[in-house]
Amino acid sequence: MTAAVVVAIDAATKALAVQLLSSRDSVSVLGGVVHLDLYRNFAGPRNILAGHTVLISLAAMGAVAAFAVLATRVRTTPFALAVGLALGAGIGNLLDRLLRAPGPLRGGVVDWLRPGWSSGSMNVADLAIQLAIAVLAIAAVQDLLARPKPARP
For residue 31, what is the DSSP state? Predict the structure, then answer.
C-alpha cells in the first residue's frame, strides 16, 4: 500500500511539474528555501554514471525487484514502511526511465524540487528514499534502546 501511494503521488506531482513548469524559469518558494525547476535527470544519484542511461535503468530494475522480494519478508511495521517507501520510489523513477523520452531504458527522470542550499534536484520519489532511510535509522535506534541490558556478573 505504501509503495502504491508513493508511486501515485510521485506520478501526479511529476505530471503537474511538467505541465506547470515547462515554460517557466525557476520559481522560488518559502523565501528561497526551495526552488521549483523542471529538470530531466538522465544520470544516477549525485550525477553518477552520466551517459549510461541503459545501465542505470537496468540497475533500477534490479533494485525494484530486490525491494519487491524484500517486501514479502518484512516482519516489523517500521521495516515494512521503509521497504514500501523505497519500493514506491524505485518504481516511480523507473517508470520515467522506461516511459519518457527518448525511449525505453533511456528516459530522463523528472526532477522538479531544488533545495536553496543545493545545486541538486529531486522529486517525491527521491524524498521517499530519504524518508525510508530515516525510518530505518529511527527504528534501529529504538531497537537498541529497547534491548535489555546484559546482567553484570
Answer: G
- The domain total for the chain is 1
pLDDT tens profile 53-95: 999 999 999 999 999 999 999 999 999 999 999 999 999 999 9
pTM (2 d.p.): 0.91
Our answer to whether residue 143 is catalytic in this structure is: no
Active site (annotated) includes residue 96? no
Q: Which of 10, 37, 111, 143 is catalytic?
A: 111
Domain coverage including residue 45: 2-145
Question: Residue 135: which of 86, 94, 91 has the closest Cα?
Answer: 86
Q: Does residue 22 form part of some domain?
A: yes
Residue 150, in any domain of the structure:
no
- pLDDT surpassing 80 at residue 42: yes
Residues of the chain with pLDDT > 90, as a percent, come to 88
Does 133 map to a domain? yes
C-beta of residue 37 within 8 angstroms of C-beta of residue 121: yes
Structural contact between residues 2 and 81, judged by C-beta atoms closer than 8 angstroms: yes
Would you say how long the chain is, in residues?
153
Instruction: Please state, rounded to an integer, the average pLDDT across all residues of the chain.
Output: 95
132 within domain boundaries: yes
- State the chain's maximal CA–CA distance in angstroms: 71
